[in-house]
Every structure is written in C-alpha cells, then in structure tokens.
Amino acid sequence: MTGNAARWENSSAARRSRRGRPYPPAFYERDTELVARELLGAVLECHTGDGVASGRIVETEAYLGPHDPACHAVAGVTERTRHLHGPPGTAYVYRIYGMYWCFNAVTQPEGIGAAVLVRAVEPLAGLDLMRARRPRAMRDRDLTNGPGKLCTALGITGDMSGALLDSPPVVLRRGDDVPDVDVRRSPRIGITRAADWPLRWLVAGSEYVSKTPGQFRVQTV
DNA sequence: ATCCGGATCGCCT
DNA sequence: GGCGATCCGGATG
Known about the structure:
Elements: H1 3-10, H2 12-16, H3 25-28, H4 32-38, E1 43-48, E2 51-63, E3 91-96, E4 100-107, E5 114-125, H5 127-133, H6 147-154, E6 166-167, E7 170-173, E8 183-186, E9 200-203, E10 219-220
Antiparallel strand pairs: 1-2, 1-7, 2-5, 2-9, 3-4, 4-5, 6-7, 8-9, 8-10
The chain binds a DNA duplex through strand 3, strand 4 and helix 6.
C-alpha cells in the first residue's frame, strides 16, 4: 500500500466515510489502480434541471498518467486534457468519436494526469429520465453498460468537466463495498497501446457490465 | 493546410 | 464481426 493510501485509510475522513457519503479528495489522491478497484460499488449521481439520475459502478478502468501509453496525459497539458491534470476528486469529461462523452474521476496529486474511467453502472434512481435520454435502449441494462451510454443516460456532459465530485452536479458516493471475491480484472477495452495491461476492474457476474469483444483474460484479484 | 486515429455506439450481416 | 457516423487534437508538411 502506498503512503497516500495509508494516509487515507488512517485519516478521520476515511473513518467518516460511510455508505452514502461523498468521497473527499483524499480518497482520490492515491494509487490509481487502488482507486479504480475501490470505486466498484460506489454510486455515481448526476443532477440536471430535469432531475437526478444515479447508478452503482460495476466496471472501471485505470489510466495511470504520462507513462501509460493509453492515457491522454501522454499529450501533456493541452486544452483537451486540462481537467485530467486538475486536482484529485474532480471530473475529467471528454468527447470521443465526435459524439459521446466519457466520464473520469481524476486521481493522484494535481498535475500528474491520471484518472479512473467509469465504464458501466447499474441504474439505481431516475430510470424514467434515463429511458427518455436513451429511447433506443430495449432493456434497462442497455441504458448504462458502456462509458458513452452511461454519460448520456445520467446526463453527464462536458461542461461538468473540472467540477469537484463531492457536490452537484456530479457526486460520487460510497456504496456497498464489493469484496475481493466478487472482483475481476482484465485488459482495458478499445485501446491499441498498452492493450495487455490488466487495468480494468469488474463486478463478477454483474448483468450491467459493458459488452466485451470476445473473451478476455480475466483474473481474480 | 491537411491528414489521421480515437478510452464508442448502433445497425447491419 | 464489420462498418459508418461525426469531430477534434495532435502530428506532419
């Protein structure tokens, strides 16, 4: 465990952190793989003028910083990656393929350029809102089983990038912790560089994880 | 100024 | 499983 991790585990903020409480910045200012693992089971919640929608995180990926060839931080600090290099516990929301948004929680000390991508959630609240935003989803699991889909369903957009995640419009709360026996890891999805690094975390057996091309090398933790 | 490829999705076969 | 939609950042000339 890293020094930062120990600092979090021993902190009064950690002891105060209970189910339903937003994570403070100290939670995120740690090893990115650890944060990706621990965000399984957390609740991602988005507030808009239409109301509140939320879901339980069942799939995450770690993007480690400039030394990770698949991480946007390899480009350095640019207009696009500005918020990736922001303080821990803030949002990095970027547009992909010209059409969709992807949501990340920034990790590590400010300026590193590391983050956790949320790839899938299990819908919890605001199902009517999500169905209205994604009218083509035939089943409820199709509302949020992909990083672009969940942003559309929850209402997460680029103007929320840079915002602290302990208060609206986007809030990440501690949920029911997922025990190690229910956690799996695999390589990350949809990337070409560092494609074999096992930096994707999933809740075993969840119906709500994103579709995987073929069968992955999946390991227990 | 131009080109290329991408942390995706939905529809097609 | 393959492909088109659609756009921007970064690289190249």
